[in-house]
Amino acid sequence: MCRRPCRGRRHGTAPLSAVGCRCRLWAVRSRRALSVALVTVRLMLDAEDVRRIALSLPDTTEKVAWNMPTFRVAGKMFATVPEDETSIAVRCPKEERDELALAEPRKFWIADHEAGFAWVRVRLVALEDEAELRDILADSWRQAAPPRLIDAHPELGLPAAD
Predict the structure, then answer these.
(1) Number of folded domains in the chain?
(2) Closest to 88 measured CA to CA, from 78, 97, 79, 96
(3) Is 70 exceeded by the pLDDT of residue 94?
(4) Does 145 lie in the same domain as 85?
(5) 3-class SS shares of the chain: helix, strand, coil, % to 5
(6) pLDDT tens for residues 36-93?
(7) 62, 67, 76, 107 - which has most CB atoms within 10 Å?
């Protein structure tokens, strides 16, 4: 007997032995749909991902400042994780920063207190994947790193053109 919602009653006109209970077919379809949905779900990046990637960059240290983690290369700050841990602040030239904020406002924005500085905020939930986060952090790292470090690590050079 079927233990699904039909409670043993057959659906349709075909005998149970010929096609099986549609409840069983529905359950199989539901499991397939669920597995497809789970495959397409994107994991949200978080502060631990930022920390792991930032500290993997050469000569990077973490220091708490203003009650939040900051990441520095050769003593210069290149990224911070604000208290809410849903975004990061990274170095970005003002001209590019303004263009980014206008082109992708769901991903980038300029905090009021950072408007006079070359920093931009990035919403972690809006990032496509870990590779995009790594590119953003590496770009910010390049802006703060001394030339000797940039020369010693050419793999962290400019991202490949699409």
Answers:
(1) 2
(2) 79
(3) yes
(4) yes
(5) 45, 20, 35
(6) 444 444 568 889 999 999 999 999 999 999 999 999 999 999 999 998 889 999 999 9
(7) 107
